[in-house]
Design goal:
There is one protein chain. By secondary structure, this protein is α+β, with helices and mostly antiparallel strands. It has one domain. The protein has seven helices and 13 strands. A hairpin with a 5-residue loop joins strand 8 and strand 9. The longest helix is centred in the N-terminal third of the chain and has 28 residues. The chain is globular and about 55 Å long.
């Protein structure tokens, strides 16, 4: 007789993966705010404040990195090689895609947009020429039996960031880098008015992006029963060369501090 799946697997079927995602996003919001405060201090010539703000931002990012590591560890501990199918038979599961594959999605977007990007935060990037901003978010594929989908949270600060440059793109990794959507924000922004959203006690909020992936397509779920938009045309067709991998990230890009502030502190 087979042993039943372990307790860790049952816990993994709960909301813990989503909780990790939400916590990481909250740290992302704090880092973005710290970046803005640092840039404002530089503009106002409050140079004595800059080292303090920089240290604060680095501390926040350090905490976020630890949460990301815990998320990866949780994923590795809760991966089960076999699972019962709908007929009650045990079947081997395909290897799971890593929880975080942001870099691969950035590379896809970089190749498609013909731009080299500098990392601002874990999910936000700006092109070297300063003309293009991208926000990268990734998700596993969820299967509830009647529907398969990928879920992402999208925040007002991310919308603001995408609108801060002439060109903005929302990059969504749907379960794997090969299923990356690169959506111009000028197309996506009107849809936010029809997305479901969650409002916190402090009246801040975030939108829910649900990409339905069954039947081999990509459809954005909007408010209302059966209200969906086909977004398959935004799937990246870029293919990296195996011999010459594309350098999506500029090697001198600062991770936490705005470039102008970083140059001042150097």
């Amino acid at each position: 007789m087979r042993n039943t799946p372990n307790t860790m697997h049952h816990i993994n079927n709960s909301q813990i993966p989503a909780a990790f995602s939400m916590l990481i996003e909250e740290f992302e919001r704090a880092i973005y705010k710290a970046n803005r405060e640092g840039a404002k201090a530089f503009e106002d010539k409050r140079y004595d404040d800059i080292p303090i703000l920089t240290q604060r931002a680095k501390g926040i990012e350090s905490f976020q990195s630890r949460i990301v590591s815990l998320e990866d560890e949780w994923s590795s501990r809760t991966t089960e090689p076999e699972r019962k199918n709908k007929k009650g038979k045990w079947t081997k599961q395909a290897p799971a895609t890593p929880v975080a594959f942001h870099a691969a999605c950035v590379a896809k977007a970089s190749e498609q947009l013909k731009a080299e990007f500098m990392k601002q935060t874990r999910s936000s990037f700006v092109s070297k020429d300063g003309q293009t901003a991208i926000v990268v978010s990734v998700s596993r594929e969820h299967d509830i039996g009647t529907q398969k989908f990928c879920w992402f949270s999208f925040h007002p600060y991310q919308s603001e960031f995408l609108q801060s440059k002439p060109n903005g793109f929302l990059v969504l990794g749907c379960a794997s880098p090969e299923r990356t959507l690169v959506i111009p924000y000028r197309d996506f922004e009107p849809w936010t008015k029809k997305l479901n959203k969650s409002v916190r006690e402090d009246e801040s909020f975030y939108w829910h992006i649900r990409i339905v992936t069954d039947a081999g397509g990509f459809r954005l779920k909007l408010e209302g029963r059966g209200n969906q938009i086909d977004v398959a045309k935004y799937q990246s067709k870029a293919k990296q060369s195996k011999n010459k991998p594309h350098k999506a990230l500029h090697p001198t890009a600062t991770r936490v501090t705005p470039p102008a502030v970083a140059s001042l502190l150097a």
